[in-house]
Amino acid sequence: MPVPTVNPDVAVLRSLPSPGAYLCGLTWDGRQLWHSDQQAGEVYALDPVDGSVRHTLSCPGARADLTFHDGRLWQIGMRPKRFLLLDPESGELVERRAIEPSNGRVCGAEVRPEGVWVCLRRPPVVQLRSVDTVEILREFPVVGNPSGLTEVDGVVYYTDFEDVVIRGYDVETGEQVFSEAATGSPTGLTYDGHHLWYCDFPGKALRAIAPLDRGARS
Fold first, then answer.
1. What are phi and psi of 67, to 5 degrees?
2. What are the DSSP calls for 156-181, one per residue?
3. C-beta separation of 61 from 80 below 8 A
4. What is the pTM (predicted TM-score) of this model?
5. Omega before residue 101 within 30° of 0, cis
6. What does the alpha-carbon distance between residue 128 and residue 138 come to, in Å, rounded to a whole number?
7. CA 11, CA 141: separation in Å to the nearest integer?
8. What is the pLDDT of residue 8?
9. Half-sphere exposure for 4 (CA within 13 Å, toward CB)
């Protein structure tokens, strides 16, 4: 299968303001968006309609992407990087979960029923890991400089800050099936059931685009 070409005219379907200036993680809990800011050391619950801040948690160790699972926020943070499991109501740090090897390369994460998908920068790979043990179950190589990550309908999407693009790979074949130019250098990434949302770092905003047309894949 040929690698898809980038569409420079991809439509931004929605935009929301970011409360912070150093955008890193982004996730969806079924009701609202959560966004983490490394510089502020905070995680924000955002109204998905207007982007207003509903709730703020302190997380000084926040460094990269964010995901939500089983009533907990999983923030990639600290040095070396690990998952910081936060109570979304109180902000209490419930657990630290190691990500081995502890070399700081893990940037993106999203928990799904099959496990937790993560992406690494050097070498650029996507991995499926156990939710309980964070052990690697499988992995495949990708291109570029992965940052934020999410998974939708058998496709793992990740942002590339340097190349200013969002890429998607079929998790069964490991083939690239999606490539769209981003508005601003993108970091965190998530899916709300309708749109792919990503952090536009220089624009200090959250942008929504359409995921791969599933009918077009068949």
1. -145, 170
2. EEEEETTTTEEEEEETTT--EEEEEE
3. no
4. 0.92
5. yes
6. 5
7. 28
8. 46
9. 19
